[in-house]
C-alpha cells in the first residue's frame, strides 16, 4: 500500500474517532445523570442530530461537543454524577463544562446549559425547562419545538444551519413561525424564505 493510501486511512480513522468520542461522551454523561436521578435534556447539535435521525440518518450532521440542559439547582448533583463517571469539571468564562481529562480542550467537553435562564442579555426568550423533553431511547433530548425555540433565540450561524437541517428533512414547515412570539417567528420565516442561506 502506498504511503499516500496509508495517510488516507489514517485520516479516515481520525474522522471516525472524532465522531465516536462525541458519542461516547454523550452516553457517558447522560447515563451518569440518569443513574443519579438528575433531570436533564440533551440540547445543541446532538439534539438536532437526534431529531434529524428520526427522519433521515443520511442527513445527520456531526457535532464536536455535548450540550446538556439541567436546572441550576441540580448542578451539585450533576457535578457529583459526572465526576463519578470520570469527567473533570472546569469553569471557563462562566461556562461549566466537564472534560475527559484535566488538560483536555474545552471544545471536547460536555457543556452545561441552564434551564429557564436567559443565556445572553437581550435575548428574546429563556431556555426551556428539562421537562420539555422526550425519550430518544439512549438519552433524553429536548422536544423539537423547544429545540427550535433555542436555535431561534441564539440565531448564530450554526443555529441557522441546524434550523435548515430540520427544515430539509421536513420536521419544520411553513406553519411553524406562528408557534412562536413574533420576534422568533420572523427569524424562522427568514430561514424558510432563504433555504440555501
Notable characteristics:
45% helix, 197 residues, two-stranded antiparallel sheet, Beta Polymerase, domain 2, alpha+beta, 5-stranded mixed β-sheet
Q: Can you tell me about this structure?
A:
This protein is an alpha+beta fold and 197 residues long. It has one domain (3-143): Beta Polymerase, domain 2. 45% of the residues lie in helices and 15% in strands. The chain is built from six helices and seven strands; from the N terminus they run αβαβαβββββααα. It has helices at residues 3-35, 44-53, 75-84, 144-154, 157-168, 182-193, and strands at residues 41-43, 66-70, 88-92, 95-99, 109-114, 133-135, 140-142. The longest helix is centred in the N-terminal third of the chain and has 33 residues, at 3-35. The N and C termini lie far apart (42 Å).
Amino acid at each position: 500500500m502506498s504511503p499516500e493510501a496509508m495517510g488516507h486511512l489514517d485520516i479516515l480513522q481520525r474522522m471516525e474517532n472524532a465522531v465516536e468520542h462525541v458519542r461516547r461522551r454523550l452516553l457517558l454523561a447522560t447515563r451518569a445523570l440518569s443513574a443519579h436521578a438528575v433531570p436533564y435534556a440533551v440540547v445543541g447539535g446532538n439534539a438536532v442530530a437526534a431529531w434529524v435521525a428520526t427522519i433521515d440518518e443520511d442527513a445527520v450532521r456531526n457535532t464536536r461537543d455535548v450540550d446538556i440542559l439541567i436546572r441550576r439547582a441540580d448542578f451539585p448533583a450533576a457535578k457529583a454524577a459526572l465526576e463519578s463517571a470520570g469527567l473533570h469539571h472546569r469553569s471557563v468564562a462562566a461556562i461549566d463544562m466537564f472534560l475527559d481529562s484535566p488538560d483536555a480542550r474545552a471544545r471536547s467537553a460536555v457543556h452545561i446549559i441552564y434551564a429557564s435562564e436567559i443565556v445572553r442579555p437581550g435575548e428574546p426568550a429563556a431556555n426551556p425547562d428539562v421537562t420539555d423533553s422526550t425519550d430518544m431511547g439512549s438519552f433524553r433530548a429536548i422536544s423539537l419545538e423547544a429545540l427550535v425555540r433555542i436555535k431561534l433565540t441564539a440565531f448564530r450561524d450554526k443555529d441557522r444551519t441546524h434550523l435548515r437541517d430540520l427544515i430539509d428533512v421536513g420536521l419544520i414547515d411553513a406553519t411553524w413561525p406562528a408557534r412562536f412570539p413574533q420576534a422568533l417567528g420572523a427569524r424562522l420565516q427568514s430561514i424558510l424564505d432563504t433555504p440555501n442561506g
